[in-house]
Amino acid sequence: MKMKYLKGLVAAGVLATAAFVGQASAGVIGLALVVDGSNSISNSEWSLQMQGYHNAINAAIPTDGSVAISGTKFGRTASVFQSMTVVTGANRGSIADNFQSESRPFIGSSTCISCAIYSAYQNSQIAAFFGGFSYDKLIIDVSTDGQWNRGNDPDGNGIGSANWAVANGVDQVNCLGVGGSADCSFVAGDGAFMVAAADFNAFETALLAKIRRETGQNVPAPAGLALLGLGLAVVAFYRRKKPQQLLINAA
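^ that's the sequence the OP posted. Answer follows.
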């Protein structure tokens, strides 16, 4: 019986170790944050938005190397201001500061969401190639207070649309809509979702919840911890059994 008992412990340990090794070797969650800077957003609202990103990154992005983030701003056109970077304890603060200090894009009446999706996607691929990391999951996260009027329809199939991004390997294109004029109907991908904020004063709270959901911080414990807990439960079970019961079972 002792041999069976030891074999059970070894098996549980091997399974738990394998699960942890699998987690360690998995790719990162890539979170491409796309920020609306079009003309419908005032300078004070832009500041509130970027302050929200700063605070949410510091509060919700893990520093264990499991998440990479980038920043792309858009108006008439789009540009990447924060290349996709794996977040650690050494760089999270500076990445958050980059969001807070970023200036608005060229102010015009146009809103090119597809430009931003395309730019964010291109950067995600280039950064991963040269950075030597891969994606376990890749998410493009668009924040907007309006709807597109330039480029391709983000709800269509043209270059830069959400469907185009998913067809090219993005897992989800999600959206945070601010105010009653925001159009987030373009979300795409398995499990894609949208979040609404009443205005830019409520933006940070909505963003914080959204990032936590996207990075898997509101899910049950990892499989490795569950297996380890199961192994400990088996140990406790056998320790509680009386010697005569063990002898009967072994007979």
